[in-house]
Amino acid sequence: MPFEYGADSSLAYVADGLSAGLVSRLANFRSLYVSPTVFVAQETAKAGRESVARRLGVNLLIQGKMHESGGTVKVLLSVYDVVHSRVLDSAELTGDHSQLVELEGQIYENVARQMQLQGSEGSFRAGMNPTARNQAYDRYLKARYVVKVLRVKGTTRRAELTQERRRTGARGSLAFSPESKSRLAPLETSRSLPPTALG
To answer: Alpha-carbon distance 123 to 77, whole Å?
Structure first.
């Protein structure tokens, strides 16, 4: 499940990046089916965790709650067994905000131990982590999160424009004339995000 970060929006990119990193590393195990956090988030909004697990076809849910105090990031991590309706393990992991690489490693090692995963499939190199340098990794997580937010905003804006076209007709919301159609196109382009930001 996507890691939660409460009201501390400064942790949003950390929570998003570390949970995505964990998913990436677990996905390297051929014996595992890992559901992306975006699907889990969508389903969680509709139902409880048991229902979510059944819909996604998974038997374990990994949950993380993050908060920061004085530069120290704490992650309350739990592995929930959906089949037997019990928490397999919970642990509080602590790391410095300037050492996110090490914190990601702690999270992965804790989960791998609880799931009894062995071998090098989920090793550091197999994951999405692009560098072992903490400062560079922090910048990477920030940039990754910005791109994700821009994509969401772009998708939302395109959906709004589509709904507006359907509501007002194929030629837009201005007067029904060739001139109004030509004036509407630049307006829509200026409101949408640049193609390079959307990927």
So the answer is: 20
| Domain co-membership, 182 together with 124 | no
The whole domain housing 76 covers: 9-129
Domain count across the chain = 2
Let me know whether 15 and 59 are in one domain.
yes
3-state SS, residue 75: strand
Distances (CA, A) of 139 to 29, 101, 184: 27, 12, 38
CATH number, domain of 69, equals 3.40.50.10070
Q: Decide: 90 and 76 in contact? Cβ < 8 Å.
A: yes
3-class DSSP state of 162: helix
Each residue of 83-99: pLDDT tens digit? 888 888 899 999 888 88
- Nearest C-alpha neighbor of 3 from the set 91, 73, 66, 60: 66
Q: What global pTM score does this model have?
A: 0.64
150-166 average pLDDT score = 78
